[in-house]
């Protein structure tokens, strides 16, 4: 597989996720955060999501606030790390 084929595949894959997210009232970042929450379990922090998915912590914070407003998550303080867990 050449680099051109790889870029083509990645671009088309991203479009599929974008379209699915949009059809369900989400942004791509919101979808990625949901995936991260699903994968991270009880040890899911904004910092870990940011590092794994390369999303700025500010964006993750706004996604969490939107999810909290919509009733998708409940945020709890994580005193050890000064972060919030979904």
Biggest sheet descriptor: 2 strands, antiparallel
In angstroms, what separates the terminal alpha carbons? Answer: 39 Å
Class by helix and strand content? mainly alpha
Number of helices: 4
Number of strands: 2
SSE succession: HHHHEE
Q: Which descriptor suits the 3D outline? A: globular
Write out the strand line-up for the largest beta sheet, numbering strands in chain order. 1-2
Commentary on this structure:
This protein has 86 residues and is mainly alpha-helical. Helix content is 65%, strand content 7%. It contains 4 helices and 2 strands; from the N terminus they run H-H-H-H-E-E. The chain has helices at residues 3-23, 28-40, 46-53, 57-70, and strands at residues 76-78, 83-85. Strands 1-2 form a two-stranded antiparallel ribbon. The longest helix has 21 residues, at 3-23. The radius of gyration is 15 Å and the shape is globular. The termini are far apart. The relative contact order is 0.12.
Features:
86 residues; two-stranded antiparallel ribbon; mainly alpha; 7% strand; 4 helices
How would you briefly describe this protein structure?
This protein is mostly helical.
Helix and strand arrangement:
Elements: H1 3-23, H2 28-40, H3 46-53, H4 57-70, E1 76-78, E2 83-85
């Amino acid at each position: 597989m050449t680099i051109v084929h790889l870029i083509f595949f990645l671009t088309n894959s991203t479009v599929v996720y974008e379209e699915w997210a949009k059809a369900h009232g989400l942004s791509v970042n919101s979808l990625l955060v949901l995936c991260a929450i699903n994968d991270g379990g009880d040890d899911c922090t904004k910092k870990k999501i940011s590092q794994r998915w390369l999303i700025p912590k500010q964006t993750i914070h706004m996604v969490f606030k939107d999810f909290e407003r919509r009733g998708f998550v409940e945020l709890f303080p994580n005193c050890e790390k000064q972060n919030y867990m979904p």
